[in-house]
Amino acid sequence: MAVRNPSPQKATTAAALRRNYETSPLYTIPASAKGLAECRIHYQPDGVIALEYLFRDGDWPHVRRDASIEYTELDARFTLNSNERPEAILAHAERAVFGAEGCGMDWRQPETRPADEDPGLTEAIFRGEVCNCQARLRRNKDNPVVWFNLRSAC
Questions:
Q1: Which one of 7, 38, 125, 142 has the lowest number of neighbouring Cβ atoms within 10 Å?
Q2: Are the CB atoms for 6 and 54 separated by under 8 Å?
Q3: Helix ranges restricted to H, the chain
Q4: What per-residue confidence (pLDDT) applies to 4?
Q5: Is residue 1 over pLDDT 50?
């Protein structure tokens, strides 16, 4: 059940999270190409704030923040039609959400394996040096990126 009237602190946190995320390429790339259909903010009783976006073509990004354990997670599902490298997009998203220094992600040494839920997808996992930071990219058999994930817990 979502909280209907968030505290001023939760509302301020949600607004900052939204501003930071909406400058991230995980939002700007699909939003500029496809257009936003819907955005919802959920305030959970346990303090978790969730942002859910839906683009006109059905693709989506979700953002989740739990301040009590300093946890932030961004998930975005969209097919990358850009010439930009997906690692560069995630690195830009890392800085947009976690600040100019990011969280010390090593973009040169991913662990690559079949995705747990769908062995038809390949998943590259990047690990950071700060706050158990991690990023993931999933590609389909034709190699376009279809899923981006960035998370950190301190």
A1: 142
A2: no
A3: 8-21, 25-34, 86-98
A4: 64
A5: no
